[in-house]
Amino acid sequence: MENIKKNIETLDHNPVMLNEMLKCLVAQDGENFLDATFGAGGYSKAILSSCQCNIISLDKDPTIAKYADNIKDQYKDRFNFVQSNFAEGIKKLQGTKFNGIVMDLGVSSMQIDLGDRGFSFTKDGPLDMRMSNSGISASNFINSADEEEIANVIYQYGDEVFSRKIAKKIVEERKKESIVTTFRLANIVRSSIFGKRGKIDPATKTFQAIRIHINDELGELTRFLANVKQMLALNGRLIIVSFHSLEDRIIKNFFKENSAKIIAQSKYAKENSVIEQGKWLKILTKKALIPSNNEIRLNPRSRSAKLRASVKIGDDDVL
């Protein structure tokens, strides 16, 4: 753990779609915001720099305390950090109203670029992948789950058509010796679909799927969204950047299911229109925003990002 903390200080992290996020947020002096995925603090620092506002930031990764301490030193009482995943963190903050909530669901550079974290197949290291450094690791899962479960995870969360071949090969190889490093798992995946290589490394989808599974990323996002309404003040904005289709589908459907349609009234009515009963969001991005070509050139990891934004248009008392 100590080595990880030292190493992350030397890594650069480029917040994805930062300008687009700030444009959608429209932060003003005196407002309160929640950065639900602090990471290296790129979003938090940019928002704090844009006006005299206040931010509470959440993150379950215990290795990023250095970044939070640096921002705290600079912005004092305007910034507070809570170590927690966003699904649990939002429960701890019940009763607090925010003028905006931002989320960047991508795996941070600190996690990908450090072999010790086990997220990347391009750097050899322990097969870990735990964002919080607690719970079941990727190695635990790979070496204990049955073949069918491994295949289902790889298919469901990675959309990998060769999931059954990969799972079978994993089970065969772990009988010889436990699979405990990223390079060994990556080579097992590649060998199981030999001859099927393309522009993307064959191990990409499998690594993504296992990471999503052991960190319960989709479940955490769903639980967060279920509680977000009560955290947003009237006219508060919700801005989420996702990086794969499963996340984006959950966000898109949530926005659509809760977005209000304007219902026309009689010309004799006091109001010309009313908000559809039970709906409380207005979608600000008709289509998901994507990074500019220049951003993708400077930061290739941003290429799959999609930003969706909405605003709370109904108050709890009238919904």
SS summary, helix count = 14
CATH architectural type of the largest domain: 3-Layer(aba) Sandwich
- Briefly, what CATH class of the largest domain? Alpha Beta
CATH homologous superfamily of the largest domain? Answer: Vaccinia Virus protein VP39
Biggest beta sheet attributes: 7 strands, mixed
Sheet/helix structural class: alpha/beta
Radius of gyration: 21 Å
- Fraction of residues in helix: 40-55%
What is the average of the pLDDT values? 87
Number-wise, the strands total 9
Q: Which descriptor suits the 3D outline?
A: globular
Task: Trace the largest sheet across and list its strands.
Answer: 3-2-1-4-5-9-8
Instruction: Outline the low-pLDDT stretches.
Output: 1-12
Approximate strand percentage = 15-25%
How far is it from the N-terminal to the C-terminal residue, by CA? Answer: 47 Å
Q: Could you tell me the CATH topology label of the largest domain.
A: Rossmann fold
